[in-house]
Design a protein that fits this description.
This protein has 299 residues and is α+β, with helices and mostly antiparallel strands. 51% of the residues lie in helices and 15% in strands. Strand 2 and strand 3 form a beta hairpin. The mean pLDDT is 95.
Length: 299
């Protein structure tokens, strides 16, 4: 099975030598799980950070095989899938903890929320998904928290004291101060999806279902930000983001100021991540200024 060149390069950028080992053993892994779980694994979907491919079980049922290189990320996703079971999350069918491989249900028709042309309708649908997914944070968990996100930005600030790419050092410093401020305010911690956006919400029969959770423990306001950063128009970006925020604030009873501050700080962090991964996202960079303007207007 041929893997997409962009996917291979992303793996090597992130996982270095571990990626080479994984890629060398890839065909053997595919054969192993076809035998172990009675599957025929087909050509993969459009890949980004993990291997995801449709599969057919020996009984004719459709499924999806997913392989995750990062042990930490795999364990986090597994925990979220189990804790959010029956709440609008894709169903976990099988898994191999040691190898980072799982089988998930295949969602049909399976088109994403990005296919909805009316942006406000899409935001409303997303808000209902979020409302169903969020649960109280587990007491004993090694899952990433919003403090870990803060520490990620601290590391970037240390490594790039004069700014990072097109992001000025002042922007990074301001975002870091906001992370510190928001993370020290007392808020009930929730188990969050961690990467919920248009392309991680799929049509499933007559309803919509979330996929690909990263797992994060923190305030609910943080979990709407990734959605706000994605599928933005070429023009009227500010208006689009503000309309989405107003829908989320109303439907989910969120603190608007907190959403705006989380938006700015996470936009800085997300843009830094894309630079580190060698996959710079210019649209994320544009949202930094947008959130900064919205914060000023709300004061």
């Amino acid at each position: 099975m041929r893997l997409q060149d962009k996917f291979v390069q992303i793996l090597k950028n992130i996982h270095k030598d571990k990626a080479d080992e994984w890629l060398n053993n890839f065909d053997k892994m595919i054969s192993l799980y076809e035998q172990k779980w009675g599957l025929t694994i087909h050509d993969p979907f459009d890949l980004s950070f993990n291997f995801v491919a449709p599969a057919t079980r020996n009984n004719g049922e459709e499924a999806v095989l997913k392989a995750v290189l990062s042990d930490k990320e795999f364990r986090a996703e597994l925990e979220v899938l189990q804790l959010m079971k029956g709440k609008g999350m894709v169903e976990l069918l099988e898994y191999d903890l040691d190898q980072g491989v799982m089988i998930l249900e295949r969602l049909r028709p399976g088109h994403t929320l990005a296919d909805i042309k009316d942006d406000e309708e899409a935001a409303y649908i997303a808000s209902q998904i979020m409302k169903n997914l969020w649960v109280a944070a587990p007491k004993n968990s090694n899952m990433e928290t919003v403090v870990d996100r803060e520490n990620s930005l601290k590391r970037i600030a240390r490594q790039h004291p004069n700014g990072f790419g097109l992001i000025a050092k002042e922007k990074i410093e301001e975002a870091l101060k906001l992370f510190e401020q928001l993370n020290r305010e007392k808020n009930q911690p929730y188990l969050l999806h961690g990467d919920l956006h248009h392309y991680n919400i799929l049509k499933n029969g007559d309803s919509w279902t979330a996929i690909d959770p990263k797992g994060l423990i923190g305030d609910r306001e943080y979990d709407v930000i990734q959605y706000l950063l994605n599928k933005l128009p070429e023009t009227k970006v500010k208006e689009t983001i503000e309309k989405r925020i107003n829908i989320f604030v109303k439907e989910l009873d969120l603190d608007k100021e907190r959403v705006l501050l989380r938006g700015f700080s996470h936009a800085v962090l997300s843009t830094c991540w894309t630079i580190e991964d060698g996959n710079f996202n210019e649209k994320f960079l544009r949202t930094i200024e947008v959130f900064q303007e919205l914060c000023k207007e709300s004061r």
